[in-house]
Amino acid sequence: MDFKKIFNNNVALTEDSNQTEMVVMGRGLSFQKKVGDQVELEKIEKTFITPSKGFADKLSDLLDEIPYEMMELSKEIIEMVNEDLHTELNDSLYLTLSDHLHFAVTRTKNGIPIRNALMWEVQKFYKAEYQASLKALNMIKTKTGVSMPEDEAASIALHLFNARQDGSGMEETMAMTNIVNDVTSIVKYHYGFDFNEDSMNYSRFITHLRYFAYRMLRGELNDDNNDGLFQQVQLQYPQAYECTKKVQAYLKKQYKMEMTTDESAYFIIHIQRVSNREKK
């Protein structure tokens, strides 16, 4: 493995014998090295394949601003999250989280308050990611001496959720969060009760909503024209059907999206299940 481009003393772009480009990280990894030199493999702390052409140039610009200590901190946080949540976060998070933390820590040091408008929604819908992010705040304080507000945990949690999906983009993650929040509000006010947010039924309903919103925003909703199922549940669960029509109207108005017959049927079933058990 040879150096192809050196970003700084700790991060470089390399190429192996198969001409596969990889970004490698490690303290002092590329100190006094030049393009064409061999990489000392024992110094590598993290490696990931470049996701696209032009990535190296973007990384170079990013690393001009971010201290390596912040990248080390991101690495430690990601390792903690992977272990706690039994997941494998997308490699792109190493860069996006480092950039975010550097900006957030700098703002906090300068006395600029950090607020997250989705704080309440994140606490409700991304509980695992939020709890891991609270631990991350303690790691940040230990590493930098900076105490961050809980709003910052919500921001980190959105990054974590985004990286668990497939690194799809923060705008999409925030749109998903808004859809889940709005639909649960529609169901809650239609039936006139609050959800038991610790119940398995609520958890299953939220999981369905997340996946639906994810596919909807990507244009991946399928319709097998299962009219038989739709007709059956429409007649069997009339109140859940009326509630589903309100959800349909919301999606059409806000996102210009027509819910398919299949999706309508599954919504009726999920709404009926969660509403029936919540009432009991």
UniProtKB/TrEMBL annotation:
GO terms for molecular function: RNA binding. Keywords: Repeat. PROSITE patterns: PRD_2. SMART domains: CAT_RBD. Residues 65-170, 171-280 form the PRD domain. One of its GO terms (biological process) is regulation of DNA-templated transcription. This is Transcription antiterminator BglG.
